[in-house]
Structures are given as structure tokens and as C-alpha cells.
Specification:
With 306 residues, the protein is α/β, with parallel strands linked by helices. The chain has eleven helices and 16 strands.
Length: 306
């Protein structure tokens, strides 16, 4: 099921003009990176109950590092399929199904969003006040007509958020569509950053590499991504996607991924390994060689001249 969802999501993105890298074969907090004007980091889940708080933090943090937008595409929630045209949420990340995702890419912004299992819409609160007054109704009278409390009407006219059932009653009474679309899903800043440093158990080799990169002028963070370490050159600001591994079985595939990711996002890439791969499209150097490098520019020059 997941592979089908990934394939369909990739197809939808490509049809919408995105460059796409499918990372679903790697251990990672995201399965797809896509770039058009915007950058999307997408996690694919057959059941969105599988999204953990920790994974969502990792996804938000990496998205922030590369100036991207985190998004989850799911199929079901518990035993029910996700509804078309509805934006769900978990841990501050937007979640949609494939059909809704395709609508979003075609500038059809969903009206409905889910809050703790309830479907809601945003309404034009100022228009609601104008229409109520035009009908000569007090808040109390309107509350009686649509079977809610006066306090609820006050809240609707203040916050502009309302359950879809009550919204339908309200718009039928007013004879006017006062629903407004959600905030643009693909814009940065429409999610809550975790404001925490990513943390995971590091191998001895990863700790050594992070220390060496820091010593020559990079800031570093370990990641749960196709790249083990995200580094940024302190002087020039260039991104460096780093694979750190001696696993010969998976090394070739992971090198292919960071090569694709760096081309997509415009950063540098490198592999630190005791293993040698003469056919790699990425510079592969041994930890001892990294330790001998004097500064970040020397390393960047090596990568550029590879």
C-alpha cells in the first residue's frame, strides 16, 4: 500500500511541475523531497496514527533547515479513510489524502479541516456580523435559530472558526456562503516549528565526523534522513549533506540519494567511509583524511573538484 501511495504522490508532483527525489527506500523521517518554487518534504503513511511526536519534530526540523514545508500524505485514520477536501493535523503538521493533495497543487485550497475528530471551516466573521445585523437579528436570536448558545455566536463572530454542521445551518439561514479557504498549505510558516535540536543515538564514527566538521568551520546536526549529518558552512552558508557509514550493502544506494538531494536543493554532498567506491558520483573520503583537512573551504574545494 505505501509503495503505491509513494508512486502516485511522485506522479502527481511531477505532473504539477516539481522535481522529485523518492527517498522511501531509506530510513528517514520523510519519503519524498520535491521542489518547484517551494520545497516540500513529504512523509507517506497508510495510517496517520503512525505519525509519532518525535517523527513530526524531525520532519519539521529538517524542513526548517532546508527552507521547506513539511507535509504528510495519508490513506486512513484508525479504520476510516481520510476524506477528500479535508486538512487533518497531527503535532502541528498538515495531513491530507492523495486527492486533496492533488487539489492543493492545482490551487484548489480545501475549506474543511479536522480538529480532534470534528470537521470545521473558517468563516468570514465580519461578513457574519454584517449579515446578522442586516436581518435585524441579535446574537441571542441567531443562536436560537441555529440551536447554539449566545456565547457560541460571540465566538464565531470573534474567531471565524466553526463546525461544518453549524456552518451549514448558518449559511442556509443567511442564504450566503461565508466559508473561506484554509491558509495556503504549501507556504512556509504555516506549521509550528519544534524549536529543538534533533537528537538520536550516534555511532562512534558519526560523533567523530561531527567533531571534525565543527573543527573546520561547519555547524552540524544529526538527522533521521538519507543523509546522517546536515552541515552548514559558517563562513559561506553552504549546505553539506553527509553520509557516514561503513555499511557496504546500503552505501551505494544512500550515495545515490544524497547526490539527488543535493542537486535538487543546491547543496554539497560527501560520504565519509572506510570503504572505497570508485564508481560513486559523490566524493568518498576516509575519516582520517577528513581529520587532516584544515578548514571548510579546503573541504568544499575538494568536493567541487571531484
Amino acid at each position: 500500500m505505501k509503495s503505491e501511495l509513494v508512486s502516485k504522490a511522485v506522479e502527481i508532483l511531477q505532473d504539477a511541475g516539481f522535481e522529485v527525489s523518492d527517498c522511501s527506500g531509506a530510513r528517514s523521517c520523510f519519503d519524498i523531497i520535491a521542489k518547484r518554487e517551494e520545497i516540500l518534504l513529504i512523509k507517506i503513511l497508510t495510517n496517520i496514527e503512525g505519525l509519532t511526536k518525535y517523527t513530526s519534530m524531525e520532519l519539521k526540523d529538517i524542513s526548517d533547515l532546508v527552507s521547506g514545508v513539511p507535509l504528510v500524505i495519508g490513506y486512513s485514520m484508525k479504520t476510516a479513510r481520510l476524506s477528500n477536501g479535508v486538512v487533518y493535523g497531527r503535532y502541528g503538521i498538515r495531513i491530507v489524502n492523495l486527492d486533496t493533495f492533488e487539489d492543493i497543487l492545482n490551487n484548489r485550497v480545501p475549506l474543511v479541516y479536522s480538529v480532534r475528530g470534528n470537521y470545521c471551516v473558517n468563516i468570514n466573521s465580519e461578513l457574519l456580523v454584517q449579515l446578522r445585523r442586516k436581518l435585524g437579528m441579535t446574537q441571542e436570536k441567531l443562536a436560537v435559530e441555529i440551536h447554539v448558545s449566545k456565547q457560541s455566536i460571540y465566538r464565531y463572530e470573534s474567531s471565524g472558526s466553526i463546525s461544518i454542521e453549524i456552518a451549514e445551518r448558518l449559511m442556509e439561514l443567511l442564504d450566503r456562503n461565508i466559508a473561506i479557504p484554509n491558509k495556503p498549505i504549501l507556504e512556509r510558516g504555516n506549521y509550528k516549528k519544534s524549536n529543538r535540536k534533533m537528537h538520536r543515538n550516534l555511532t562512534n564514527l558519526e560523533m567523530i565526523v561531527m567533531e571534525d566538521l565543527e573543527n573546520i568551520g561547519f555547524s552540524t546536526l544529526p538527522t533521521n534522513a538519507p543523509f546522517d549529518i546536515f552541515a552548514r558552512e559558517k563562513a559561506e552558508g553552504g549546505m553539506l549533506f553527509t553520509v557516514v557509514s561503513n555499511d557496504g550493502k546500503r552505501l551505494g544506494y544512500r550515495i545515490e540519494l544524497i547526490n539527488a538531494i543535493s542537486e535538487l536543493l543546491g547543496g554539497y554532498k560527501i560520504c565519509i567511509s572506510e570503504r572505497r567506491d570508485d564508481n560513486a558520483d559523490v566524493l568518498v573520503i576516509k575519516p582520517k583524511k577528513l581529520n587532516e583537512i584544515q578548514d571548510s573551504r579546503e573541504l568544499i574545494d575538494m568536493i567541487e573538484n571531484f
